[in-house]
Amino acid sequence: MMSNLKIYCNAGCQKEFEVKSFKTAKLPDKVEKTYFNCPHCDHEYLVHYTDIEIRKLQARIRRVQKRFADPNDNHEDAARKEAEIQALIKEKMDALRLEVEGEGGLNG
């Protein structure tokens, strides 16, 4: 469950609104697009794209983050692994966005 985010529609109607939830669209090759729309003008804002590999990395990072709840675990090691996985996720998300949105990509 996400907490509401206050957003300013800087690319559309210029009105402020709250994002109560994200939407997900299934694209070819098991890619998922996460986004939200301005309720006033319906402008679409991309959150991110994920593929199977990225979703597996996201699950892995959630497992690493659970280590912080254990006072006997090595939190320094968990933080290092979390940072490594997060950097890998960002790199893969950036590449996937180029693949999806680039000329001749999944969106056309």
Number of helices: 2
Strand-pairing-aware structural class: alpha+beta
Strand ordering within the main sheet: 3-4-5
SSE sequence, one letter per element: EEEEEHH
Considering DSSP H and I runs of 4 or more, what fraction of the residues is helical?
A: 25-40%
β-sheet strand percentage: 25-35%
- Ends distance: 33 Å
Major β-sheet annotation: 3 strands, antiparallel
Structure report:
The protein is of the alpha+beta class and 108 residues long. It has helices spanning 52-66, 75-101, and strands at 5-8, 16-19, 23-27, 31-37, 44-50. A three-stranded antiparallel β-sheet has the order 3-4-5. A two-stranded antiparallel ribbon has the order 1-2. Strand 4 (31-37) and strand 5 (44-50) form a beta hairpin.
Can you describe this structure in just a few lines?
39% of the residues lie in helices and 25% in strands. The protein has 108 residues and is an alpha+beta fold.
Please describe the topology of this protein.
Elements: E1 5-8, E2 16-19, E3 23-27, E4 31-37, E5 44-50, H1 52-66, H2 75-101
Helix pairs in contact: 1-2
List keywords for this structure.
108 residues, alpha+beta, three-stranded antiparallel beta sheet, two-stranded antiparallel ribbon, globular
